[in-house]
Amino acid sequence: MFGKGIIIREAHFPGRAAIEAYGNGGFRFADMSHRGSLLCLPSGIHGWQPADATALSVADFDKVLAEAGKIEILLVGMGKELRPLPAALRAALKQAGISADPMSTGAAVRTYNVLLAEDRAVAAALVAVD
User: Model-level pTM?
Assistant: First the structure.
C-alpha cells in the first residue's frame, strides 16, 4: 500500500550552478526549473520565500547568515528595480563579514554567474520576476 499523500520537500539543489535563465516567476539552473525566489549559497541552491520581497528582513536571510564564514559577497536581486536593503539587514550582514550588494534580479544573476565562474566566495538572494 502507498503512504498517506504526497510528501513535499523543501526545494534544494545540493551544489553550485550558474543561473541559465530567469523570468516568468522563476529560474532555470542545472537543467532544472524552479518557480519562485532562490538563495544560491555554498551549500547549494535553495527555494526561498521572503515574507515580503519589497521589505526584506534579517529573518529572510537566516540561511545566508548560517553560512557566513563561506560567503564574502552577497548579491541581492531585488526584483525588477533596485531598492536599498533595510538598515537592520545591512548591519546584520556586515557584522557577519558579508558584503551585500542590492541590484535588480537580472543584474544579480549576471554578476553571480561571472563571480561563480571565477570561483569567488559569492552567494545570491534572488527575488523572482515575471
Answer: 0.89
